[in-house]
Design a protein that fits this description.
four-stranded antiparallel β-sheet; homotetramer; Alpha-Beta Plaits; alpha/beta
Chain lengths: 339, 339, 339, 339
């Protein structure tokens, strides 16, 4: 951590903060120039919120030198984290995984029809929302526990693993019973109460990036889960909020490269939520593969026009099949394993 | 709701979506021109997520005509909502309320010292965090239940009402026992599970604006609480995220005017979190008063340099007193009631 | 254009704005419901700035139905615009074009070395800045006219077309003399004085997207050039500003898909400025190809560490060669023509 | 400047960049810890674009310690810059200045009517656009030179100083002839060619903040003008782009406090462009006064509904008078001088 004092700071102000930091057992190295007092703070500064130190009179600017996340960082673990779901399905490493399914679970019939088809087309994991985070209290809120049971049932019958979004810490036992991967939605990325609970969960967690979160904040949220003991974390980029309105969000495709540099955790892309338009999903999926993501989460529906949510961004089944064929072709050129 | 078809849309596509909407009992009024098909959808469209309709082939753009929130809207209730805490303290209307106190409750001694002083200077409500939403799992997380108990005790002894932030729905009984106003933090603004629970709470709720939420999204979150039956909602603007880095967030002071136009709910400002720098708090507070906010939430600490969190943005006690004097002077010119 | 009145608007206010619009020869179609007055404005509304109409008392919200750009729109011209530079080099359509070269022209020797190498590796166009828009007045500002002459000379000797950025309208004659494509930089995207001058230019113009411009604003800037008579416009996505700091900007890869839907103009991607880190350039280039861009603009330097600007994002020559080989492989799978 | 190497950086990489910086006569101070190499660069680093140094292999993160602007900084000049227009009108210091007038000059009659009224109400400076930066080439573009002449004539007859926006460097002689203050619009804040020309101008320059510029970038643009020799620069905050759509832009009122800390230059606020809604202008003006701005720029029109541009945000004349009365009252409490 580097601390730069204000130009008008006094020697006394400088000494006060230095004394405080030394009392907390940090080593101080001075880098002052003629015009400005600057010093480095050596030691494990991860317990300091730099923001708090601004309370000291005369402090100008504080810059972290080490990353605030530890267990999530590439320096903590050099090799890639690979999450083994069993039956040869892995997330991370060389494999390119595809999660597909409806936005919301609507009925057993709907779910089965979609599941059978995405399985046939090559998907590995079935997605489906049981508890839906809708911006309006007057919109369809999901089938809740019933939805989770259907996910499990249909997953077992089709041979797909299942993933669904958890809305709150108190529902964790239910999710541990019914799903293979627990998803944290974009609006809960900094629901620290939930993240702490997931640190004790026995299932892998897929953490979606907050709508306007930086990559550092996202990795800090992963750190919350890992600090609790659960190191099975998958990151999912799903578009960030920008001024652009033509797409629902802006897919930050470079985040794949940044995450792979900073962390050992696998990262997949959700082009459906990013674009919010089904006709962009195929091309964005190919770009995700080309940039090096570990997989995709895609919304698929057999009848998007009558879907209870997010029909706009759902691929019809035959479009999904075409996309999977294209993915196969490019995977081969790139040397990616794809079941 | 106005639906504009794409230029290349066919008559058949137009008829399909029209038929669907008519089957849901909406009235359709055509406004097409020579080059483009456009129509209005008349009826209560609040149950439709416009996004879902994009699933229909040929749909170009959908625009809401009525606001998606109802109970929170000015058209639902013309007069201002005024929340009566008792002892003459009201939030809303002509009164300018001041909530003050430390970022975190650290000890009884600390809390009492600050509470006595802010009370003397004219504050009405004691703020203090018991469950702290920290970005790092390695930072101080708050005294939790013990902190809530101290808030109640010190509030009672000093004659201040108390407000504290709730982290999760399952802690609601605890908060209903100990605090007078339950605060929802910026990171939980769209924690719909929590909002639904608060719809059943017997205490007023103060809802902070999400870090990058629009005013419409914020009011939709208020709607969640009100839809559940709890109409005692206070809004709190606390700065939004922008590219600017000199301040922690950017105080959106115009939000006060927008909210007062769109809604009947009271709105207060938190200049401490907005700026993240204590030396900006006084001036921003005066501006908040001048623009017409119903009150302030300000962080005050007797020893900010050793505060366990957010010292940087906490006013020292004598600075707070000076600020309150300035507020008094301007209140008088503006004809605002200030205890 | 759809105009929705405020709920509290009076019949008289409604009639006033309707009368005004009818006096300007627009046709009005009413779509009012019981609670709210709404109407459509039929005719060529491109000369109306919707913002201006808010001056009428009682106006609530105004929504454009037709796009504000005409000549740049897909409905003006169904087929793709293809810009022929000669010698079989085209921008647009099926070809995937590569522009490469240093950020700044530094000397003839430097430029020649880089040009020969990028030509050998398969690039079609040489990029190089002569007038550099630097954020600091104390940084290297470019070789100016001398730089343009070197571009021409080296371009001719190596058989590459040349592109360079114009800083101001009064330098247009110089650019028309020396370069094959005139580039408008991100900071000048809404320099309307310059855009109008380029409307009269005899050379194609490459228009970079403004750092925080929407796609609609970007196409409106293209419209300025086309309205003046110059329809040879290429769009270049170069990353937009977001909160993310790890990358210099955030590459908006979906913009390629949006532009191709809304417009007939070709669109290329500049991954160097988007990422600001050379080690992300190759993967982002492959993603750009996969998503369907018409080409790339890439910074290449033989000695990035001593480049006078933007070394951080410049590829070394052998990295550029590797990248071109990868592009070739994927181009074949995708059926793209690549010289 | 502090340079932190990547964790995996080698000793050799460290030595290479250190050697390079020493060759440029900077002094190096090492602050490395056990796990990470970090060093300070001492000397005048304003000629280095930190971004360029990332080209060196192994460089992790670079942080400026001194501000990149010099002449614009508070450390260059402790006291406030005060711009004297004559006749007792000053911008900066204790005076609260009001600039008012129409968005566009439309005719002599219109301009005279508005000018006489704003003068009577207490304004000091007449604003009016002659060259209008419109987003559509099909909108009214201004009266151009004729407009400037009218500004001068009406200014002289009413005893108001005049300000108008310059679109391009080649029009500087015209502006030096006709106006008292030359305005740089938000879209030209980084038109460095124009800024350099204004460095040689003999008139004060008012520099509007770019729509998504940081305060540092804004002050760097001021630095461009000052570096050329013209130190008469006024800053104008006019709202920044955020996700919020209810207001046209988001007024960053804290920017006043930030600028006053970082710089000696005066700063005024334009609430009309910030809000884009006339009914917010009065309250935002009072807040601007309360926060400590040096003045206001406000759009006023006698007939906003038929204004050729920006009627939505223009105050009617009697509203402007009411506002000026409110400003007077609060000025007195705050001890601000107001003519």
């Amino acid at each position: 951590m580097i601390i730069k004092m204000k130009e008008q700071a006094t020697k006394k102000e400088y000494e006060k903060i230095v004394a405080y930091l030394e009392s907390r057992h940090f080593e101080i190295k001075d880098v002052s120039s003629e015009h400005i007092m600057v010093f480095g703070v050596i030691g494990d500064t991860s317990s300091i919120d730099p923001h708090d130190l601004y309370a000291f009179q005369g402090v100008g600017e504080i810059t972290r030198v080490s990353t605030p996340f530890k267990k999530a960082s590439r320096s903590f673990k050099r090799g890639d984290t690979i999450i083994n779901l069993g039956k040869g399905v892995q997330i991370g490493g060389d494999q390119f995984i595809v999660m597909a399914g409806p936005c919301s679970v609507e009925s057993e019939k709907q779910l089965m029809k979609i599941a059978e088809n995405v399985k046939k087309a090559g998907a590995h994991i079935l997605r489906g929302g049981a508890y839906k985070p809708r911006t309006s209290p007057y919109s369809f809120q999901g089938l809740e526990e019933e939805g989770l049971k259907l996910m499990r049932k249909v997953g077992d019958q089709t041979g797909l693993f299942v993933i669904s979004e958890i809305p709150s810490a108190d529902l964790l036992p239910l999710f541990e019973t019914y799903v293979d991967i627990i998803q944290v939605g974009t609006r809960n990325m900094q629901n620290f109460h939930l993240l702490k609970a997931l640190g004790k969960a026995k299932k892998p967690v897929m953490l979606k990036r907050g709508m306007s979160a930086t990559i550092e904040e996202w990795l800090m949220s992963a750190e919350y889960i890992m600090a609790g003991g659960n190191e099975q974390v998958i990151l999912c980029e799903r578009g960030i909020r920008t001024y652009e309105r033509y797409t629902r969000n802006t897919l930050d495709i470079s985040a794949v490269l940044a995450v792979k540099e900073l962390s050992h955790l696998p990262i997949i892309i959700d082009p459906s939520h990013a674009a919010g338009r089904w006709n962009m999903v195929e091309k964005l999926s190919l770009a995700s593969l080309a940039v090096g993501a570990h997989g995709l989460m895609v919304e698929v529906h057999h009848d998007p026009e009558h879907a209870l949510s997010d029909g706009a961004q759902s691929l019809k089944i035959n479009k999904f099949k075409t996309m999977m064929t294209e993915i196969d072709k490019i995977s081969q050129v790139l040397g990616k394993r794809h079941l």
